[in-house]
Amino acid sequence: MKVNDVTLPKQASEGKVALAGRTRRLRATENLRSMVRESHLRVEKLIYPLFLIEGSGTRKPISSMPGIHQQTVDEAIKEISELVAEGITAILLFGIPEKKDSQASGAWLPEGIVQVATREIKKHFPKLTIIADTCLCEYMDHGHCGIVEGGEILNDPSLEIIAKTAVSQAEAGADIIAPSDMMDGHVAAIRQALDDAGFQNIPIMAYSAKFASALYGPFREAAQSAPQFGDRKSYQMDPANGREALREIELDIAEGADFVMVKPALSYLDIISKAREITKLPIAAYNVSGEYSMVKAAAANGWIDERKVVLEMLTGLVRAGADLIITYHARDIAKWLSDSDGAR
After folding, report:
1. Residue spans of beta strands (DSSP E) within 288-334
2. Percent share of the chain, pLDDT over 90
3. Angstrom distance (rounded) from CA 51 to CA 32
């Protein structure tokens, strides 16, 4: 009999003497398991998304995302005070304007919803890391992530608006710019614009491998960003393409990205793992709305233990190579990790 390529004596194979390959020795107690645990889920690695609307005193539940809301800035301040107390140190802001147009003016105007929110949040929580989602779809009347002419989403003309949006967000106080539009060359355009505006020290978290996924469904409700025609498959990635994802990541790194991201997360663990092999940059994994909502629905029906499943899934993201996790579960995880028996 062989164990770990070592030939054991006949007595060992019959269980009569100690085996050299007894891996269960290190699983015998919680203390032992904790001592040898390889992957750790930490609250400071979590990023919590917020959906912001104009006005005041309003908090609207998102029906497909239990526990998540569209909310005005004053209401968001209340939630942020709670999540900061829970140990969360970073948020990702999505803006939903009252009016949309064909130039996405709500994305880049100084009084845009994300700009207003960023300034207000920084007044109350100056140490909180604010990541601004830099995209145009929520602000476009057609719901696409770039300029549209004749039914075509134009790449290069869109870069100017995307770069202008990034500068406006940095001027408002955003700590990290996160372009999610998937236009070719957007990282280089943003880097140049930020540098020219004096924001050389503002990092870019690129949505490098962002797939055209069916798991974004609940987000469409949350951000009110569904395209009015067609789909986003001409700029978001084909879910079947792993090598292309790595090429996208390499291109963004060459253009000046400081972080790279894989989105969605759970169906793309192989991409996270392969990305870890090709770069030493921090890797973010976006645990998207559909992944969140499926867990919530199963838990509501009593089919799964929500806490155990969420901690297992997100620990898997860390094991695959993710350094940061954007997740709607962040507040729950922060509470669970504060319990001694919930530590990962």
Report:
1. 324-327
2. 70
3. 42
Which residue in the block uniquely carries the two structure tokens 């192989």? Answer: 270
Tens of pLDDT along 267-290? Answer: 999 999 999 999 999 999 999 999
- Three-state DSSP class for 152? strand
Report d(CA 100, CA 344) in Å as an integer: 43
Mean pLDDT across 174-195: 95
- Which residue did the predictor score with more confidence, 325 or 99? 325
CB 295 within 8 A of CB 304: yes
CA distance 260 to 250: 9
Is beta strand 147-149 parallel, antiparallel or unpaired with respect to 152-154? antiparallel
Domain 42-342 class, CATH top level: alpha beta
| Residue extents of the structural domains in the chain | 42-342
Is residue 311 within 8 Å of residue 333, measured between CB atoms?
yes
Per the CB < 8 A criterion, the answer to whether 199 and 165 are in contact is: no
Report yes or no: 117 and 77 within 8 Å, Cβ to Cβ. no
Task: Cite the active site residues.
Answer: 210, 263
Indicate the pTM of the whole model: 0.90
pLDDT at 140: 82
Residues 6+ apart with CB under 8 A from 58: 70, 71, 72, 75
User: Is the peptide bond prior to 264 cis by the omega test (within 30 degrees of 0)?
Assistant: yes
